[in-house]
Amino acid sequence: VSQGAHPPPLLFCLPTVTSEQIEHLHRRFKQLSRDQLTIRKENFDSIPDLEFNPIRGKIVHAFFDKRNLRQESDGLADEINFEDFLTIMSYFRPIEMNMDEEQLDRFRKEKLKFLFHMYDSDHDGKITLQEYRNVVEELLSGNPHLEKDSARSIADGAMMEAASICVGQMGPDQVYEGITFEDFLKMWQGIDIETKMHVRFLNMETIAHCY
Amino acid sequence: IPSVSSIVPESCLLIVVGLLVGGLIKGVGEEPPILKSNIFFLFLLPPIILDAGYFLPLRQFTENLGTILIFAVVGTLWNAFFLGGLMYAVCQLSGPSLNHIGLLANLLFGSIISAVDPVAVLAVFEEIHINELLHILVFGESLLNDAVTVVLYHLFEEFANFEQVTIIDIILGFLSFFVVSLGGVFVGVIYGVIAAFTSRFTSHIRVIEPLFVFLYSYMAYLSAELFHLSGIMALIASGVVMRPYVEANISHKSHTTIKYFLKMWSSVSETLIFIFLGVSTVAGHHYWNWTFVISTLLFCLIARVLGVLVLTWFINKFRIVKLTPKDQFIIAYGGLRGAIAFSLGYLLDYKHFGMRDMFLTAIITVIFFTVFVQGMTIRPLVDLLAVKKKQETKRSINEEIHTQFLDHLLTGIEDICGHYGHHHWKDKLNRFNKKYVKKCLIAGERSKEPQLIAFYHKMEMKQAIELVESGGIGKIPSAVSTVSIQNINPKTLPVEPILPALSKDKEEEIRKILRNNLQKTRQRLRSYNRHTLVADPYEEAWNQMLLRRQKARQLEQKMNNYLTVPAHKLDSPTMSRARIGSDPLAYEPKADSENLPIITIDPASPQSPESVDLMNEEPKGCGGLPPSPEEDEEGLVMRVKEPSSPGTDDVFTPGTSDSPNNQRMLRCLSDPGPRPELEEGEPFIPKGQ
């Protein structure tokens, strides 16, 4: 199926992508990498539509983030191979009918962890006010005429809301350090991410592989 | 003890009321009125549909559009043909009483009765608060099946007159479906764009903004009906298209007006429809045929259930969020028939359809059954099956940020995969919208406002209004936590403003709302006339502010002039008043207007101590006439007349700097002559005072 690499064992034990999908992704990988074995950050520049995306920096970064690649180390990889590419793509699998409660919960946590890593750019496990401001600024980066203050105040307001959801009432001298992963989970409780965060074409009949 | 309204849905009660009224009228000996199709289609139906279309939750609707379309089109077609065919078989088999009803007549009957009715669905589903997915599925289906119904109805009606139905006719009929539905949507979109464009220029005539929304939508409906296109789809399309642009252009008050008027009209229409249904039942000529009616009822239910089951099996192959059996049950059970079916049946011509009365009886029976039995039992069934109910989530800024982030992320992933999916096209549409459409249809700087900022402004405004309406700025609602900016960013000074840098208009708008609500009592005592309403204070805020400041300065000038007029000139108070009154704009406001004494005036009490004092001082200084009674009544010429709009009072700060001003004025009055510093050309303003 793929040249040289069989998919990592982790991918197999979850209901997974089919061989057709792997074929398709492999073709795309080869296109992006210009027939090399690995992709670097620069290769993503060749995608024209990605230019308009306000958070393209964060998306590309996420591909190279070692935490997403399920590697124990931290930091950024310089290049990724097809295995890693598939690993990242697997975060966007759709939900399956036959998943039980525990699988569903793990599924959801995985996706939210991916998102969390995107927000938390300095890898310290917390989304600080500055990082959140950064996120909002990037989201609004498509509007050059906006003042800096607007993004900042929106982020501040959102952070305050997050603090009030996660901690509740706070005294005037308590300081809310940042959004941890547990708080992040709380914030997303209302939104069913498992149905929203998927890419449609990965939803074909799946064959569960298991080693 | 459960109240009646918790068991019986409102629609049922209204039909019962109609029955009673109809019975009463008949009992008296009069002929009860029947719901004429004319009135129904032209006046009663549009408000309900417009209300539904204008407030359609677009996100869920587009996400489930495929499912909705399949249910609406394929489902209705299946229902119509299944029912029509089976009824024909029944008619043939049941003997001489029904034998004469042809296939086409039966198919026509099937097409009338098979459409799920939006009015009935709305009436029942509103009360059970079911989760948004199911609500939008059933409701969307009831809206979109109008095209199918229109086509089938006209088709079979025409065919019933033909001697022979050829293949060409059938193919043309099939094509006409596309014309009817797409044409209706097209008409709606055109009118929606025109309405949005009109609203761009309404900043000076805010009062009639709501009118445009209603007018253009109704015109879309009428235009579509004129050409036998689907009026309901035109109405929905126009509401959906115009809404984002109109809401960005119109004032806050107009938005509220539109909302309340739409809700009001649709409530009234709905009530009238159900009552009339009841009355028409009593009034109509009925022809009861057991076989026909019972088999209609039976086959309706069977057709609905089968249709939903088969279609869901098919749809679930393509859906991410599959429809569970519970969902399917609710969808099938929610297929209520209503007044549209009745009106369509009523439109049938006696000449061609002699069994019209029987049809009407059967239609009414089905309507009654679905509305009463299904309507009443759906609520306990929903509870029994533990179907997910609507979540009362408040839209928060966090959610908005996350949703937008997710959208962009998924679009990015799709681009990386090279897959042109759902998100890719949505993103392209949004960019097109932002780049071209918004510039044309939204006035001023709001055309460039990104969605996140617009959302934030809306939330801030809502919070400001809530805060004020909950009884003043001092009282913090318990829902708001005590988290402040200190808690998240201790380095910031407490005075850092939390509100984003709002544009001038927005700031004024918020300030006006706050001030407005704090002065509610005073406002209520004033009577409005049409012409004062035209200048909406929110929008004219800036100009009004300047105007008032100007007026205040003029008044201050007048006062100073009055006071610095040398006392020995011995003007009678009347003369002075006349002079001041005659040249209101004699003086231009000086640049250093801060040096002018602030007049402390309390408009509510004309007989304030200050004014009386001054009047008393005046004769002392000039040795003039005692103040005439009228002057006392009037107080001082400096008294501000009725504020022309709310919020004038801010210019006159009450209660500050009483004594120094008084003293200054006294000094002016007792001054025997003109001040040496006064120059000829300049207005009479004391320098350096």
From TrEMBL, chain A:
GO MF, any single term: protein kinase inhibitor activity
InterPro entries noted in UniProt: CHP3, EF-hand-dom_pair, EF_Hand_1_Ca_BS, EF_hand_dom
Domain EF-hand: start-end pairs: 107-142
Keyword Lipoprotein applies: yes
Membrane association type: Lipid-anchor
One CC-aspect GO term: nucleus
SMART domains for this protein: EFh
GO terms of biological process kind: cell differentiation
Pfam families: EF-hand_1 (PF00036)
Keywords: Calcium, Cell membrane, Cell projection, Cytoplasm, Differentiation, Lipoprotein, Membrane, Metal-binding, Myristate, Nucleus, Protein kinase inhibitor
PROSITE patterns: EF_HAND_1 (PS00018), EF_HAND_2 (PS50222)
Cellular compartments annotated: Cell projection, Lamellipodium; Cell projection, Ruffle membrane; Cytoplasm; Membrane
Top-level taxon of the source organism: Eukaryota
Keyword Metal-binding: yes
Family: Belongs to the calcineurin regulatory subunit family. CHP subfamily.
Name of the protein: Calcineurin B homologous protein 3
Automatic annotation (TrEMBL), chain B:
Catalyzed reactions: Li(+)(in) + Na(+)(out) = Li(+)(out) + Na(+)(in); Na(+)(in) + H(+)(out) = Na(+)(out) + H(+)(in); Li(+)(out) + H(+)(in) = Li(+)(in) + H(+)(out)
Subcellular localization: Basolateral cell membrane
Domain Cation/H+ exchanger transmembrane: 8-382
Domain Sodium/hydrogen exchanger regulatory region: 480-564
Membrane-spanning parts: 6-25, 37-56, 68-91, 103-124, 136-156, 168-198, 218-241, 262-284, 290-316, 328-347, 359-382
Keywords: Antiport, Calmodulin-binding, Cell membrane, Coiled coil, Glycoprotein, Ion transport, Lipoprotein, Membrane, Palmitate, Phosphoprotein, Sodium, Sodium transport, Transmembrane, Transmembrane helix, Transport, Ubl conjugation
Coiled coil residues, start to end: 504-531
Membrane topology: Multi-pass membrane protein
Biased composition (Polar residues): 654-664
This protein's record includes keyword Transmembrane helix: yes
InterPro entries membership: Cation/H_exchanger_CPA1, Cation/H_exchanger_TM, NaH_exchanger, NHE-1-like, NHE_CaM-bd
One Gene Ontology term of the molecular function aspect: calmodulin binding
GO cellular component, one term: basolateral plasma membrane
UniProt GO BP: regulation of intracellular pH; sodium ion import across plasma membrane
Superkingdom: Eukaryota
Region (Disordered), start-end ranges: 602-689
Pfam family for this entry, one: NEXCaM_BD
Family label: Belongs to the monovalent cation:proton antiporter 1 (CPA1) transporter (TC 2.A.36) family.
Record protein name field: Sodium/hydrogen exchanger
Species this chain originates from: Todus mexicanus
Gene name as annotated: Slc9a1
